[in-house]
Amino acid sequence: MTETVSTGNEAGADAPQSQGERKGLTLERVFSTESVHPYDEITWERRDVVQTNWKTGETVFEQRGVEFPDFWSVNASTIVTTKYFRGAVGTEAREWSLKQLIDRVVKTYTDAGQEHGYFATDADAEVFEHELTWLLVHQYFSFNSPVWFNVGTPSPQQVSACFILSVDDSMDSILNWYKEEGFIFKGGSGAGLNLSRIRSSKELLSSGGTASGPVSFMRGADASAGTIKSGGATRRAAKMVVLDVDHPDIEEFVETKAREEDKIRALRDAGFDMDLGGKDITSVQYQNANNSVRVTDEFMRAVEDGTEFGLRARQTGEVIETVDARELFRKIAVAAWECADPGLQYDDTINDWHTNPETGRITASNPCSEYMSLDNSSCNLASLNLLKFLKDDGTFDGELFAKAVEFIITAMDISICFADFPTESIGKTTVDYRQLGIGYANLGALLMAMGLGYDSDGGRAMAATITSLMTGTSYKRSAELAAIVGPYNGYARNAEAHKRVMRKHQAANDAVRPLHVADTQVHKLATQAWADVVALGETNGFRNAQASVLAPTGTIGFMMDCDTTGIEPDFSLVKFKKLVGGGSMQIVNQTIPRALTKLGYQPEQVEAIVAFIAEHGHVIDAPGLKQEHYEVFDCAMGARALKPMGHVRMMAACQPFLSGAISKTVNLPESATVEEIEDVYMQAWKLGLKATAVYRDNCKVGQPLADGKSEASKKDQGMAAAAAGSSSEVETNLEPKVIEKVVYAPTRKRLPKSRVSRTTSFTVGGAEGYMISGAHDDGTLGEIFLKLGKQGSTLAGVMDAFSIAISIGLQYGVPLETYVSKYTNQRFEPAGLTDDADIRMAQSVMDYVFRRLALDYLPFDDRAALGIFSAEERQRHLETGSYEPLVEETGSASELTAGSSGSSSEVETSVEDDLGGRVASASERIETTEASVAEKPAPKEAHTSAELLELITGTAVDSPLCMTCGTKMRPAGSCYVCEGCGSTSGCS
Fold first, then answer.
1. Quick one: pLDDT band at residue 529, thresholds 50, 70, 90?
2. Which of 156, 379, 421, 563 has a CB 3.0–4.6 Å from the CB of 437, allowing a cystine?
3. 3-state SS assignment for residue 540
4. Which of 436-440, 935-939, 967-971 has the lowest mean pLDDT?
5. Which positions ≥6 away from 563 have C-beta within 8 Å?
6. What percent of the chain has pLDDT over 70?
7. Residues 146, 200: one domain?
8. DSSP class of residue 893?
9. Is the predicted pLDDT of residue 44 greater than 70, yes or no?
10. Same domain, 113 and 187
11. Residue 590 in contact with residue 610, Cβ under 8 Å?
12. CA 945 to CA 564: how far, in whole Å?
């Protein structure tokens, strides 16, 4: 039985105010039309929603005849139908129209607003209802998922996605922690807490025994989270565990998940299924929580100075052990390098921006690290779709954005009046402090459409001014609401501290230096909003202790058809799109033509650049694109992936204008070092972030990415060597392997004296070369010789040595496909166009050579696994949807080789068609307001943008598979989201 606490007036909600005491809000209609219901302005259509697990072929959901606006994407309607429609499928109680869903929520909010005195008249209540409905149905914003799950249903009216719990140093409190987390997970939300009050394993109990320590109690909570699978079918459990850096068990906490990764490797190599979601992964502990270390300025300064730092007893506060601060900081970075945990939370920064310090310190956060407030509290979230406010002239409509914020923040506050909470203490704290979390999505797409680089001064200035305007407008409306329905109950106690933080926000806004017309306009509005906040707050106080956060916006981002989530940059330039009636297309990001037009390119130039992106998935060497404009199209993944500090600098630009923090992970390449992670953590502190987390590609074992046991084992040994930094230790670990190699030493298979060889002349980017390849009697490749550069030159000598090394490797049994996978996609000059009809573009000579060898010597199935096809095979895929060779139609296998049939002009034409070039017909493109965007059928192997990017670039996207539909997820804030079904791995 769910222990849900109804707040009502009993829990401290404001009673309706008499008109003699206060007058409600008088609202002006901004978005909707007088005397016309928002639903009547748009065209509705019926759709069938059928969801399949791509891996098993099993139909996991089916509902036919659902009703949505014609401009909603198939993806958005599918996710809303499967996630948010209530009632048993196949019964009359089941919702079948978006109208029913929105009405269920909006009417509940409106009725509660009227009951609690928010509106001056019934007419104002109607305006509120219509404006909120218009904004939702037109995808201008969305409430967080629990609102759609619960509001207006017989279920408890839980509206919060984020919870912070507390635990004390007693067994009663610890067991109560397990219980409270369980109820929160069951309701589809996530929770975080700080375990630092629990005595360490180095301290004594009153009975004389030794305490277990917080890490031991984490095991029970982790098992509970893994069992509940929060929200039933809605999402998996999400939780955050925080420990203070001065806790005596801090080193054990830091290394906890890294040690479990070692266990995963050992079990995997023994043959157990240790992929994420695998049947044996449940034997590994601590995998259901994000771990964070709460560091202080004192500790970070000790790291800078290289001094000692004291670890303190929990009950007395005395120093019981000293450690080298740099060494501990290094251990944190090594653990994050190995397994992405722990992240850091910067305690002094967090509490310096705390509006309620007289009530208590902020000790923890929600699972995704954006909500930071008092213990035993909750926060309901809503996010705006920023791209909806981009005007035709390429500027941001700040005035319209501010109007939307006013309506949304009003609705969010109203929800606290009728909301239910999982525990009485959470309900009381939330009603007393009324924390809200307004935020936004689509920042990355907005900046690109405006012609601004994500990692640029212009991009950061635009993001900062928008964030400042959002929070300033929110607190302005909060002060206006305080005049109508009263300030939050805890305001009087914290009034001076709250007003001090408002002045800090205002000062940060004054420090922003706009760089162009668009952000100057928004900055002026933000400056006025903060002036109003300070003035109104002095008179009225504030209705809400907190107003804004930047959440991951995973599922609700897809509900709004956003290209990017939260504060994230665009994921990739090429996207996967589902079509009405079935099928899918591969399209170029539709903000790209808008960005190119904004940057001054002519329609024919835009068309050529878009065609290039459709082929390559990046803009490097795109025809006519200036190099200074490359940064506008930098993405989270791909050839021009953003640098780690680019993510950090964007977070730092927005952080001063947020009540809470930012859910975001700083992505690093697999080659990143421990020192780079240390630098990210140190710079994040210096730049004033409240929290940061990192993820190094392929650092997790429990991902469906390993090529096999032996290759993964070798890679793990290399990781251990890099992290340990001690050659002697590594040599000791590898000694048994050396003995094995002696026993099973490979033998060399030499080529016959007379053998079949093939000579290929080639040109790459204007550089000419020759390749001679010799084969064994069975046709397998045994040697290569490369001629490039003048005889006697350094280049010619290097190529001779390289050829000998590859040839000996082939003769000792190294598979050709191994060389192909390693050397293709290497980029260096010369690069560019080739004279080979099968390989029109090469990123380097190595890229060309090994693609050519694959086409000449590898069977079709092996090449297909590597994504290497001949021109004829690519043309066949366009015509039939399959690359498979039709041997019965073409005769001999030799005719399947590149250029063996048809004229060269025919081959070139087919290649142009396959690459989405200018010869594509009108039926193969879609029109946008600015320009046509290259579009063609998506490969059958791709079911999401992440999988499509892998096929285009030939590189792996390091994300887990979705538990529901089996497709590859993509990063969203500090968690992952599935664009196939909307499932998330966190609390967004």
1. very high
2. 379
3. helix
4. 935-939
5. 387, 442, 444, 445, 570, 575, 589, 590, 591
6. 79
7. no
8. G
9. yes
10. no
11. no
12. 12
Average pLDDT over residues 632-658: 93
Is residue 366 part of the annotated active site? The answer reads: yes
What's the number of domains the chain is made of? Answer: 4
- Indicate if 174 and 321 belong to the same structural domain: yes
Is the CA virtual torsion 930, 934, 939, 940 positive or negative?
positive
Cβ distance 314 to 260 under 8 Å?
no
Q: What is the DSSP string of 543-561?
A: S-S--B-B---HHHHHHTT
**Which region among 62-71, 736-745, 795-804 has the lowest average model confidence (pLDDT)?**
736-745
pLDDT for 930 beyond 70: no
Report how far residue 217's alpha carbon sits from residue 242's, in angstroms, rounded to the nearest whole number.
13
803 and 893 inside one domain: yes
Residue 630 has φ and ψ, to the nearest 5°, of -55, -40
* pLDDT, tens only, 963-980: 666 677 777 766 777 766
953 domain residue, yes or no? no
* 477 in Cβ contact with 450 (< 8 Å): no
pLDDT at 928 > cutoff 60:
no
pLDDT category, 902, cuts 50, 70, 90? very low
Distance CA 774, CA 756 (A): 6
Q: Of 295-299, 694-698, 703-707, 796-800, which range is least confident?
A: 703-707
Catalytic residue among 368, 417, 635, 978: 368
Domain that holds residue 262: 162-352
The pLDDT of 314-336, averaged and rounded, is: 95
60 within domain boundaries: yes
* pLDDT value of residue 582: 59
Q: In angstroms, how far is CA 283 from the centroid of its own chain?
A: 27
pTM equals 0.75
Residue of 131, 370, 607, 935 marked active site: 370
Instruction: Give me the sign of the Cα torsion angle 99, 100, 104, 107.
Output: positive
SS3 452: coil
Domain final residue pick, 886, 916, 946 = 916
Active-site residue, 368 included: yes
Q: Which residues contact 501 (CB under 8 A, 6 or more apart)?
A: 353, 354, 355
Tell whether 421 is covered by a domain. Answer: yes
**Pair 288, 268 in one domain:** yes
Would you call 464 helix, strand, or coil by DSSP?
A: helix
Beta bridge partner(s), residue 936:
586
Domain boundary among 352, 372, 406: 352
Does 871 lie in the same domain as 734?
no
Q: Which of 366, 385, 494, 509 is catalytic?
A: 366
- φ, ψ dihedrals at 866, nearest 5°: -95, 0
Given pLDDT bands bounded at 50, 70 and 90, which one contains residue 577? low
Q: Residue 678: inside a domain, yes or no?
A: no
Structure token pair of residue 909: 């034409």
Q: Verify that 175 and 151 share a domain, yes or no.
A: no
Please state, rounded to an integer, the average pLDDT across all residues of the chain: 83
Run of H or E residues at 449: helix 443-449
Pairing outcome for strands 832-833 and 841-842: antiparallel
Question: Is residue 370 a contact partner of residue 973, using CB atoms and an 8 Å limit?
Answer: yes
Residues 778 and 810 in one domain: yes
Residue 152 corresponds to which amino acid? G
